[in-house]
Predict the 3D structure of the following.
Amino acid sequence: MYRGFKAIESADYREVVRYFEKHEKSIVQLEFDEYFEMLVSYTHSLFEIGSYSKHVLMSDVVIEASIEQNVQYFHGEDVFYNMLFRKAASFYNLYEHDKAEHILKELIKIDPFNNESIAFLKKCLHDRKSSLIKNMRAAAMVLFLVTPMIIAAEVLFISHFYPQFEPFVRTVWMVTFLAGWVCYLSGDLLHRFKETKKVERYVSDAKAQKDKNEKLFLHS
């Protein structure tokens, strides 16, 4: 069973998934080291082929097994961190951003100096469509709709009956159009700035708490 698994190319993710699911009942009866290696490979392969819902479930199985058998590192990698990070990525791909953010915040609490988790949390928060973005985009859409109405009024009415006001009306619709783009773009920029600052404050608090805990541990 194990030899058959080892014969599969590690990058042949679909075959790894097929083999594990076909022989799962026999695999769980193997010695822990062999079983765990196949379990980790299977779970990783689920992520790589985009089977995110199943990957979320199997990540918990790997984490539980690693805790029960006191396995922190596997093939030189931190099992607990890697599983949680990819689990967050699966939630992100399933558009369950709240769950992804929760996991990433917990990872940052554990290691507030891990730039990978910090960058991913920023991405999750940036992608969230906040009320600020929605309101600014709604305002932009209103301005974009008003602009052609002003242009139509200029062409059909102002230019014929009140040509002296034509430069002023032209200025109005140009300003309205530009204001629409300002609203649209500034909403995204303000949102990104706000969420980035939120993550930076969270990381700063996590670093302070970790430093405090380490000092308490040293003096205990």
About this structure: Residues 131-218 form one domain. The chain has ten helices and two strands. The mean pLDDT is 90.
